[in-house]
Amino acid sequence: MKEKFLHYVWQYKLLHQPKLYSAQNEKITIINCGVYNTNSGPDFLNAKIQIDNQLWYGNIEIHIKSSDWYTHKHETDSNYDAVILHVVWENDAEVFMKNNKPIPTLELNDKVDGNILKNYQSLVYQNSNWIPCGKQISKVNSFTLENWLERLFFERLEQKSKFILELLSETNNDYEAVLFQMLAKNFGLKVNSEAFLKLSKSFSFSVLRKVRHKEVEISALLFGQGGFLKDDVDIFFYKNLKNEYKYLKHKYLLKPLKKEYFQFFRMRPSNFPTIRIAQLSALYCKHQNLFAEVLKSENIEFLYDLFDIKVHPFWKSHYTFKKESKKSSKKLSKSFIDLVIINTIIPLKYVYFKSKGILKEEELLSLMKSLKPERNSIITNFENLKVKCDNSYASQSLLQLKNRYCDAKRCLECAIGDQLVKAQ
Q: I need a surface site. Which of 199, 224, 289, 388 has the fewest CB within 10 A?
């Protein structure tokens, strides 16, 4: 038995006996269960119950065993002085208030609906399934599932918002600067994300604003700050960038990173840091006010066009500065742009709209539903359980479900688990 289950039973009044009596044989009528407390202190606050003929307002504390009151030293904690009812699974010891009167105690082990207890145990104690409800999730009605997935999607956006708000705080609410930092992080993909973020923070965005009108200057800034212009390479393009960076470094008192921060090993050439920096340079050379353009985007075609860039001709025949290769356009693929939209554009627009008190949830949902779902083992496993995943909105929601609820067995906080536990 877990306390979380007892919290759930109390919160939703899942007691099958119409008449309740305390361990002291007092009649108990639950009028208001109180507000679930996720902080320290009693489990439910501001409850309203009637004990015999007396109406009580106060807090509810819940334990597996009544003796846990003393195990947790509540008798010495003033936060528990206003407890009006002790709810327990097993009443194994009498608990007294400071005036030496016993605290009214409600024992639940014979009062919980047997079907609910059985359903709960089949979820929480099922360790052989990939997720606790693996054998039952396909039975959940579509209305419950669809509403829960939408809530999970916005919960995931809220989670991503925390990082964006940190960046906004660091940049004095400069959305253009934060967009650049988030794009840089995304352009680095998983392997180089932190290195690219470090690169984007290694200089003031005001410098980029001043140089982004000329491709050679913005390229020199990004490659120079990344530590890629310290070698002696006998190529005109490289020498030109190196000379330009020398000037920028002196003018803006720049401090470059170490090239060793960036990983090339076991990466596809199209994902080399040099190519991603070249693409990022081209993007900011093409758009002078990128965040303003992002805000105007209401459909996926607009965003695809926004990220349709052409790298400097040098990079069409190179993956690094030193070695020539077969010519290719080095354009951003649609799958890469999709990742940028999912991880940068949608979360940043969400934070911006929210800060302005603007509700554009349908616009964000429409954008997400127009993107293909991510392909990974989690999504594949959900599809094997007959859970549809037709677009990126669904895949993002399912990732949130698996990582935040299923893995932690938070079934009682999940709409799917809630329906399965209460099923008759």
A: 289
